[in-house]
Amino acid sequence: MERGAAEPHGLGEYAGLLAEVSRTGRLLRREELDVLRELGERSAEEGLSLRELVGRYLGETRRLWTSLPGVARAAGAAERARTGDALLAAVEAAVAALGEGHERAQRLAVRQEEAARREFVDDLLYGRSDLGRLAERAERFGLRLAGEHAVGVAEGPERFDDLHAVARRVERELLARFGDRDVLIATKAGRLVCVAAGGRDGALEAFAKYARTDGPGGHAAHRVALGRPHAGAGGVVTSYEEALGALELATQLELAEPVLHAADLLVFPVLLRDRAAMADLVRSVLGPLTEGRGGARPLLETIWACAATAYVNAEAARRLQVSVRTLSYRLARIKELTGYDPADGLQRYTLETAAMGARVLGWPDRPL
């Protein structure tokens, strides 16, 4: 078999090769196997499946078998057996080489597709590339950027990548439920990301549910943040940044909620935008707590617990692992030291805002 001289899929040369093996009983040479590998690779590129390719060559083997010179001229059973063994060994080697080439082409195609997908996701989430070109590429991955899209981001105890069991399971579940249009699952910076059309009701909520569900092969996400829907390719970037911002706030403020909606956290960036003003608020309102027994932290934790439980004293005391009587004493001490009464709505808001700023700024562990 000479390189470059093959008929479509090499069947003509294959007939000559089998004829020679039937006469001589020899094994296939390295260069012949290389040509078969190239034929397998070319067949994959032309869209022929591995099953179709192997079936074509096995069918040709069966068609030619009785007319092969070594088979037709075999004098006895022993010679026919030797010829048959040689031919089967050649067919086995040929099919293995064809399969190897076919698989090599498939792996290359997968790597190219993964690289294109990764580049698209990077451009989409960071707002790079020409918007018209980005919209064209988005169609290839099932997104139509003209409408609204929202982004969900999940983070867990371990980094997510495209081969992570949780990432693959979440993608499988979402595609089974919503199809492959207007829902894209990807990973970025160790997090799991879902881009969903704004009109696909429940897609991001389902993403949050599946991402937080334990399964075999890896730990599920412990927190998911959902950005708001925005229009166009730029809207995807905005929603993604909102989700990332929600995750950062959750860490800074030690929020316990496993699913965060950026729409519910809009007040926090506004309040924390001026860090100098926030530091002044913390010093002015909460600074006197340092005079309390045990320092400011126990009283500050009391404000956090009461705010988190809507001032249900029994629940706040349970979270703090103190008695309700101790909690009441602490609230009275907060009022006495700061001059702000937690029972008064406006003054309570000031205390809670200052306590939130203390969390972000790391006070009292870090000086202001």
Automatic annotation (TrEMBL):
InterPro entries linked to this entry: CdaR-like_regulators, CdaR_GGDEF, PucR_C-HTH_dom, PucR_C-HTH_sf
Domain PucR C-terminal helix-turn-helix: 299-354
Origin: domain of life: Bacteria
Domain CdaR GGDEF-like: start-end pairs: 127-249
Family, per entry: Belongs to the CdaR family.
Protein name: PucR family transcriptional regulator
Organism for this UniProt entry: Streptomyces ochraceiscleroticus
